Amino acid sequence: MNIFRFLGDMSHILSFLLLLHKIVGGKSAAGISLRTAEMYAIVFCTRYIDLLWNFASLYNYLLKLLFIGASLTIVYFMRYGPSQKATYNADEDAFPVQYLIAPCAVLGVLINQDHSSPFEMVWAFSIYLEAVAILPQLFLLQKQGEVENLTSHYVFALGAYRALYLLNWMFRFMTEPDY
After folding, report:
1. Which residues span the membrane (predicted)?
2. CA dist 120 to 33, 108, 114, 123, 166, Å?
3. What confidence score (pLDDT) does residue 115 get?
């Protein structure tokens, strides 16, 4: 593991902590897109299904569990938490996610590393979906016109995670012969 991946993982954990603090601690889901949260839950549940048969390291295993658990917890509180449900505005969170999910599913089947492996297809789908999962959140923020501090920090931490992972992939491409 390199420093970019580690910092990317820490930034991603920070994004979860910020969002959970706002939703659970602040008892409010105002300004947060449930559609984005649900797509991230789909991303992590599909990408990390290999938890059932693939053990790379304790760090990797625990992060996968954390990402799945945190994303499902966020969705749970936004859907069923009384105060969160009352502060969530479904009318404003109206991005048509079917236009994101369906093309990502098609791409996952058509463009992946091993065309005969269902796991590779699902993994590729999760990669494509993660690339667009933030769009409903950005759409919601643009619609509302103003952003709470915790929400902007959450979005920034997600962006930092993606940027650091890009640096991780570039670093690995330059330093690992078979990458």
Report:
1. 61-81, 93-111, 123-141, 153-171
2. 28, 8, 6, 5, 20
3. 79
pLDDT of residue 7: 98
Q: Which residue has the tokens 């059932």?
A: 52
pLDDT tens digits for range 130-150? 999 999 999 999 999 888 898
Q: φ and ψ at 89, to 5 degrees?
A: -110, 95
Q: Which of 100-127 are b and which e, b meaning 16 or more Cβ less than 10 Å from the residue's Cβ?
A: bbeebbebbeeebeeeeeeeebbbbbbb
CA 175 to chain centroid:
27
Residue 178 is predicted with a pLDDT of 85
Q: Are 11 and 48 in contact (CB under 8 A)?
A: no
- Please tell me the distance from the alpha carbon of residue 47 to that of residue 43, in angstroms, as a whole number: 6
